[in-house]
Amino acid sequence: MSLIVDTVFDLDALLTDEERAWQARARAFATERILPIIDADFENKHFRRELVPALAEAGFLGMHIEGYGCAGAGAVAYGLVCHELEAADSGWRTFVSVQGSLAMSAIAKHGSEQQKHEWLPRMARGEAIGCFALTEPAGGSDPAAMSTTARRDGDDWVLDGAKRWIGLASIADVAVVWAKDEDGVVRGFLVPTSADGFTATPIDGKFAMRASIQCDVTLESVRVPASAMLPEARGLSAPFQCLNEARYGIVWGAMGAARSCLEAAIGRSRTREVFGAPIGARQLVQGALADMFVEYEKGMLLALHLGRLKERGAITPAQISVGKLNSVREALEIAHRARALLGGDGITDAFPVMRHAANLEAVRTYEGTDEIHQLVLGRELTGIAAFS
User: Fold this and answer.
1) Cβ atoms of residues 161 and 221 within 8 Å
2) What is the mean pLDDT of residues 9-15?
3) Which end of the chain, N or C, is surrounded by fewer C-beta atoms within 10 Å?
4) Which residue from 221, 259, 245, 234 is spatially nearest to 89, judged by alpha carbons?
5) Out of 113, 333, 367, 371, which one is annotated catalytic?
């Protein structure tokens, strides 16, 4: 299992045999199934849907959920899977996150037993894909300003509104749609994407997440039965619980992208010669590599600490904000410094660094920008909310 970066700091010693097995499975999947095709898929803006059954067979979809055909793995094991998938490409960690941490978690946390039995086993097997429709075109970081509505009409609900940056929506079978009811209360609904009035349009022109799918969604008088409402979801705390699941995965995932960039820089420092010697023999280069490595290992130790807290049921949203803010910010800095060490070749697809850097810019924005997580932590530290 050891990579270059593992030889200095033995993180494996802090893991269980089961956790190492999940990591090995994810690393093998990323190495054999994603890395050979990811540069072409990124270039061609192609989402390789045929990998979904293989992800399901490996047990990665909703793997942290207990029962209903899900693996019931621990938080650290799930984090390690996110880490390995994002070391290949952020788009594939995002797929596992949208499917498992958002859509499946919404059903597992807030759904009825009938809804759980109807959807979770199929989603775990990759037979059904879900999406999580919360963000709106004008809302972004302010979901409380949600304008999508749900009104009662006899025994049905009728949904109207628009969502943006909804991962997987154009290939999903079911959308978890968040809307305000007539009393202004946020509710969740399971909406078949085949429903009349539901339209998902992939967003084009992206310079990041090109091997992934994000969509604009419109809901025009979409009618669903009363049984489509998630009975335990009431208020913004319901979608936020799911967002925290996704943010937790990012804590580990972003460090996977950082690891890939760091490994590329280390490898190149040994083979690229300038002024008669490998650049790795230069003090400035070794200093840069050391700084990158220290931030990577700090990020991994933070991720592991948060995972152990999560397994004890002791983790808080503020702690997750610490992890998301640190991991993505430091991963981007590692990517930028790696690109510089690679010289001009660093902007080509001979190395994964520019692809990771572009993807991390997107990861930095979704599931809470740096500024939002800073304000979450500021509120935790001062007791004063400064969001408005």
Assistant:
1) no
2) 89
3) C
4) 259
5) 367
Q: Are 1 and 20 in contact (CB under 8 A)?
A: yes
**Residue whose token pair is 């989603």:** 123
Q: Which amino acid is at 376?
A: V
Topology classification of domain 130-228:
Butyryl-CoA Dehydrogenase, subunit A; domain 2 (2.40.110)
Confidence at 365, pLDDT banded by 50, 70, 90: very high
Side-chain-side CA neighbours of residue 122 (13 Å): 14
pLDDT digits (tens, 9 = 90+) for 51-81: 999 999 999 999 999 999 999 999 999 999 9
> Residue 388: is its pLDDT beyond 60?
yes
Confidence bin at 246 (pLDDT 50/70/90):
very high
pLDDT score at 204: 97
Side chain identity, residue 166 = I
Length of the chain equals 388
Using DSSP's 3-state secondary structure scheme, residue 301 falls into: helix
Written as six digits, the tokens of 314 are 């002791």
Q: What residue ranges do the domains of the chain occupy? A: 4-124, 130-228, 237-382
Interatomic CA distance for residues 262 and 351, integer angstroms: 11
